[in-house]
Amino acid sequence: MPLRPDERTKADKTLHSLAQYIALTGTNWLPNQPDDSHTNMVWNNERQRLEGRSFKREDQQIQLVVDTSTFSLLFVDEQQHVVASFPIEGKTPAEATSWWQSLMHDWGIVEIKGLNYTLAEPPVPNNTPYAHPVGLKAWGEWRKLAQTVLTTLNESSGQASEVRIWPHHFDTGVYYSFPGETGAEQAAIWAGYAIADAVSYEPYFYLSGYDSRQHIDFAATRSLTTGTWLNTPSWQGAILPISLVTGAEQINAFLSESYAWLADKTGRNTARK
Q1: Host H or E run for residue 97
Q2: Structural domain boundaries of the chain?
Q3: Distance (Å, whole) CA 95 – CA 30
Q4: Which of 40, 56, 217, 251 could make an S-S bridge to 164, C-beta 3.0–4.6 Å?
């Protein structure tokens, strides 16, 4: 079922808001990683839910999930038994935060750590009740598609990266880091699927990167079969808005072509033939 733009925006904002509890859980229960990967999550299309990384509490491995089929925040164990739950419908972010904080204190977290980023504005205002978004299944299909094409990019580029959803910008993405002789990162290429933001008024697939040794001239790119290159003061890279998407093959071509150009510019063109 296609989503109207307003329905898609509502789903993105609602789930972006709820994803912050997964990020907070990772911040407070997992070893903090330099790339903040302890806060990210994955979309499980089979179970129709956002899933955070598991952590150990007493003798259990537990993870926090945003279950869209029941519209609930759930802490589940390895056997998928529900350890704690919070029905979201009609509740506010303030109430969800109170539930989460109370549970953390009950579980022995004395001093709760906050996130190391700040959202420009809350996706759902603190005292606005959550409402079950229309078309969550269709929303999930876009995230499933993003996982599929980014996995294909891993394979075709010969690079390795987890396909994860990041809580700050709420994009599904991969990140390829290229170290120099000292082992420090010298260049990087990243790609993904992003929600509407300052780059595009609608969700879009993207690819970008940098090289610390040289300036990459995004004004001198090769034209793409599909999608376009942007070269603005705030963002440089290739984008493919979802209104132009016809299927996975088209997105694969977009990512493959833009990756090849940028990998060539950074001297990292190791794509498999």
Answers
A1: helix 93-106
A2: 5-106, 136-265
A3: 24
A4: 40
